[in-house]
């Protein structure tokens, strides 16, 4: 790879509210598509499709899948490919994905592979899908117990974001997305972190501005480093420990289910302590990070055997190179450092810091 030029990614346009709906309307009017399909899951079919229809008055064929990560697999794709085929979708058909990250990831994959690829448009309806899954073109499904194991990078034609959908999003799902937004502040914009920290998560009138800001932070990072060779790794702050914690809780059904954002919120508190111990984050900023996340997310307790299992899972983290666990840490709020190695005793200290 040495000397190979890394192209900047061209990423899809994200259009907000009226602009987005107008573009969608024009696209459907343009006669460039022979037929239009709209994919929802069982929840967005009930809550979001009626709102979508307030803005979209063109003929379309609805398709729906069961809600939830457990349905993000190839069998669901097969059903949808069959359904597209039976209903006469051809190479000039369009798929609109209306749902959370599961629907936009899986629908994007179904569209990208049907007849070697048809166009798709994403309309994310969860906060997480708006601020995170909407940018970067990652599509795919889980396979043999591994998340996002099969998939391709393919950008949608464009993305429409409208916070009207958030009205029906359960509060815990909202908190899950908010964790990614707080992360955007921690890795790129200290003022944004402090603004989000001082705002109530339920304050709806300011959410749209925050979503735009988060999308712009993620877009900038992804554009600079589309293949995750360097800068893009900063998006993994809180995710090294967070993923291990998420996986551990998933593998132990007797434990409470942790949503992705809830797990990475814990990861961000612990990695703040690692940052204090490794990259000179000040104690004040470390404590501030803990205070902010603890005020939003319920505490979770870890037994000794949980900690051993989670440390075991860290070793399988996909971000590892040459068998060493690498972390994104902070020098200060807004100033990340990639590829940091930490000592095992510091990981123990991070669990202790979280529990205290
Ligand atoms: N492509 C990417 O870059 C990227 C980035 C982050 C996450 N992801 C993927 O996204 C998925 C997680 O996304 P998610 O949290 O949106 O999960 P999800 O799609 O499962 O949505 C969460 C829950 O909220 C429901 N829901 C969604 N919008 C709703 C609304 N407006 N009203 C009521 N209920 C609603 C869904 O039916 C589901 O039950 C994971 O599979 C993850 O791998 C992808
Ligand atoms: Zn995440």
List keywords for this structure.
356 residues; alpha/beta; Rossmann fold; Dehydroquinate synthase-like, alpha domain; 2 domains; 4-stranded parallel beta sheet; two-stranded parallel ribbon; 14 helices; 15% strand; globular; disordered N terminus; binds nicotinamide-adenine-dinucleotide; binds zinc ion
Structural description of this entry:
It is a single chain. The chain has 356 residues and is an alpha/beta fold. It has two domains: 13-169, Rossmann fold, CATH 3.40.50.1970; 172-355, Dehydroquinate synthase-like - alpha domain (Dehydroquinate synthase-like, alpha domain), CATH 1.20.1090.10. It is 49% helix and 15% strand. It has 14 helices and ten strands. It has helices at 17-29, 42-47, 49-55, 74-86, 101-113, 127-133, 171-188, 190-198, 207-224, 239-251, 260-278, 283-296, 304-314, 344-355, and strands at residues 13-16, 35-41, 61-65, 93-99, 119-124, 141-143, 146-150, 158-161, 326-332, 335-341. The strands form four sheets. It has a four-stranded parallel β-sheet with strand order 3-2-4-5. Strands 1-8 form a two-stranded parallel ribbon. Strand 9 (326-332) and strand 10 form a beta hairpin. Helix 6 (127-133) packs parallel to helix 9 (207-224) and helix 11 (260-278) packs across helix 14 (344-355). The protein is globular. The model is unreliable at 1-7 (pLDDT under 50).
Short description:
49% of the residues lie in helices and 15% in strands. It is α/β, with parallel strands linked by helices and 356 residues long.
